[in-house]
Design a protein that fits this description.
heterodimer, A: 139 residues, alpha+beta, Glutaredoxin, 2 domains, B: 455 residues, alpha/beta, Rossmann fold, Ubiquitin-like (UB roll), 3 domains, 5-stranded mixed sheet, 4-stranded parallel sheet, 17 helices, 12% strand, globular, disordered C terminus, binds flavin mononucleotide, binds iron/sulfur cluster
Chain lengths: 139, 455
């Protein structure tokens, strides 16, 4: 798994050649690596955007209105949850509990958490990321 | 006497000082327990853990001292002994281990080293959920500091004890919090649970004896060594010793983690500490231990936060995640969202869980849409019943128990969805429009993975 994390850090996702490299380094088959990677939500088997935005929609965040936050991101970015913007900048996903429920709604941008996010904050977050500041580069 | 109010034992001094810094942690007595413990006989340490009455904080509440006592002694096994710290924290509603790692990482490290000494382990793994990137940075920095000071590594604090700590990052899978799935994942495989026996104490990671404990359990160990097991046991109530971090969330004014003595009434947490429900709305239900446990109704809010009281009320303290639900929430939508979570997270190894969670989701969706017939409500309960006790790991039960409890306790509301041919909230429920994640690996197959059921 650390090898898959490394490969994904390099490529941004896990294309077949990345899986082949991991397999060679560890003396496994690419199919085995694919099987492992496909089990976990954080390994990407399709390309993703530079900024990965995960909105928690589990119970606690949903009680606090996570649906509205997600809908605001969908509007602002013009993609549905599960999709990536055409310019390859943003991937949006609805995510299971991120572990910040007391400060709902939780939104993770490249796994750096932002808490107490409301639908009203969304345009600001997107503008900030488009401006190039903000989240780290560990996509 | 009923325990009451905040009671900071684990988080003592964490408000005044930045305890992520080693020097600050040492200034309030940190790492003193380690020095004492390394000069104490391992058997005595295990005795002290037993005497403390400390029960696991990860979910199952198994006494830590007992589990440690199941580990063979180093001279009884040809394999190395391992400690594994469960930092996967993904039970919905739970965010306490995260706070401990961010605020008192050195207490976690100190607890690891002491526990390793107690069981004769020289290597400890911390299985950290992949999403916790900041937590990883903080833990890694603290680990570096501990290394520099000689609290971790070879020949710790001038003794012949050696401990290496490895932080392993997960990659997003709830099931990896289950201890045997965690071990599989640690070994680089798909995180699917193993059958037990053999138990991890005998054959855990790399087929070697392994002790697995939650972050909070481990972080409590230095306190117990410092106070002495018997003193620690005086905190809390019978069968529920000590303090716990409760993660309060949902419809409350002040969500967050609150360290309380076990036995404190639930009402106090929600109303006195949490500030009650926003805008004076009425309480409808409380999930007292993470989304896997049966729900309590508003009438049961005087139940005490301890293992026995929760068991009497037919539920569990679980991971200590208290989710407050107010009158605006539709319980069918709640059930649907919870069932979707377990469907998504089922590892697919056993049929009742893999298929059953899917059936539950489909029936709940029909109920919510007002398309369900009478028989389907019974079918839902029947599916829950057939999952319960028939699965390899507790995830199946964790999906069935809460859903069955929502139907049992809010039967009338479920019935109205059938009688009125739709949701009685008419689009006004606070959970309206809640969307579950689409499995990203199958996002392009979205429409195709719906397998129709035969009702
Ligand atoms: C589906 C499932 C998920 C679990 N997730 C976690 C978790 O995220 N963190 C945790 O500490 N324990 C979790 N557990 C409980 C562990 O299996 C195990 O009981 C616990 O880590 C033991 O530590 P403790 O005795 O200190 O509580 C989970 C159990 C199941 C069945
Ligand atoms: S109960 Fe579910 S999660 Fe657990 S082993 Fe079976 S299929 Fe996997």
């Amino acid at each position: 798994m650390p090898a898959l994390h490394l490969a994904q850090d390099r490529y941004g996702w896990l294309p077949p050649e990345a899986l082949r490299e991991v397999a060679e380094a560890l003396d496994l088959t690419p199919a085995y690596c694919y099987a492992v990677a496909s089990f976990y939500d954080m390994y990407h088997l399709e390309p993703v955007g530079r900024y990965e935005i995960a909105v928690c929609t589990n119970v606690s965040c949903a009680l606090a209105g996570a649906q509205d936050v997600l809908a605001a991101f969908e509007r602002e970015l013009g993609v549905q949850a599960g999709g990536t913007t055409e310019d390859g900048e943003f991937s949006l996903s609805s995510f299971e509990c991120l572990g910040g429920c007391g400060w709902a709604t939780v939104v993770a941008v490249n796994w750096r958490y932002r808490e107490h996010v409301t639908a009203g904050d969304v345009p600001g977050i997107v503008a900030e990321l488009r401006g190039g500041e903000g989240a780290g580069d560990d996509a | 006497m009923t325990p009451s109010g905040l009671h900071e034992v684990l988080l003592r001094h964490a408000d005044e000082r930045d305890l992520t810094k080693r020097a600050e942690y040492e200034a309030v007595g940190g790492y003193r327990a380690l020095t004492t413990a390394l000069r104490t006989d391992p058997g005595e340490l295990v005795e002290s853990l037993l005497a403390s009455g400390l029960r696991g904080r990860g979910g199952a509440g198994f006494p830590m001292g007992r589990k440690a006592s199941f580990i063979p002694k180093p001279d009884q096994t040809p394999n190395p002994i391992y400690l594994t710290v469960n930092a996967d924290e993904s039970e919905p509603g739970t965010f306490k281990d995260r706070e401990l790692m961010l605020r008192i990482p050195h207490a976690v490290i100190e607890g690891i080293v002491i526990t390793c000494h107690a069981i004769g382990a020289e290597t400890a793994f911390v299985y950290l959920r992949g999403e916790y990137a900041t937590e990883f940075d903080v833990m890694a920095a603290a680990l570096d500091e501990a290394h520099e000071a000689g609290y971790v590594g070879p020949g710790i604090a001038g003794t012949d004890t050696n401990v290496t700590i490895v932080i392993h990052r997960g990659a997003g899978a709830y099931i990896c919090g289950e201890e045997t799935a965690l071990l599989e994942s640690l070994e680089g495989k798909r995180g699917q649970p193993r059958s037990k026996p053999p138990f991890p104490a005998i054959s855990g990671v790399y087929a070697s004896p392994t002790l697995i404990n939650n972050v909070e359990t481990i972080a409590t160990v230095p306190t117990i060594v410092g106070m002495g097991g018997e003193e620690y046991a005086k905190l809390g109530v019978e069968n529920s010793a000590g303090t716990r971090l409760f993660s309060l969330s949902g419809n409350v004014v002040k969500g967050g983690n609150y360290e309380l003595e076990l036995g404190t009434p639930l009402r106090e947490l929600i109303y006195d500490l949490g500030g009650g429900i926003p805008d004076g709305r009425a309480l409808k239900a409380v999930i007292p231990g993470g989304s896997s446990v049966p729900v309590l109704t508003a009438d049961e809010v005087d139940t005490a936060l301890d293992f026995d009281a929760m068991a009497q009320a037919g539920t569990m303290l679980g991971s200590g995640a208290v989710i407050v639900i107010d009158e605006r929430a539709c319980m069918v939508q709640l059930g649907l969202r919870v069932a979707q979570f377990y469907m998504h997270e089922s590892c697919g190894k056993c049929t009742p869980c893999r298929e059953g969670t899917r059936w539950m989701v489909q029936i709940l969706r029909k109920l919510e849409a007002g398309e369900a017939e009478q028989g389907e409500l019974d079918l839902l309960l029947n599916v829950c019943d057939r999952i319960l006790g028939n699965c390899l790991c507790p995830l199946g039960d964790a999906a069935a128990m809460p859903i069955a409890s929502y139907v049992a306790k809010f039967r009338e509301e479920y019935q109205r969805h059938i009688d009125e041919g739709g949701c009685p909230f008419g689009g006004e429920s606070s959970l309206e429009g809640v969307v579950a994640p689409v499995d990203q690996h199958h996002a392009h197959l979205r429409g195709q993975i719906e397998v129709p059921i035969h009702a």
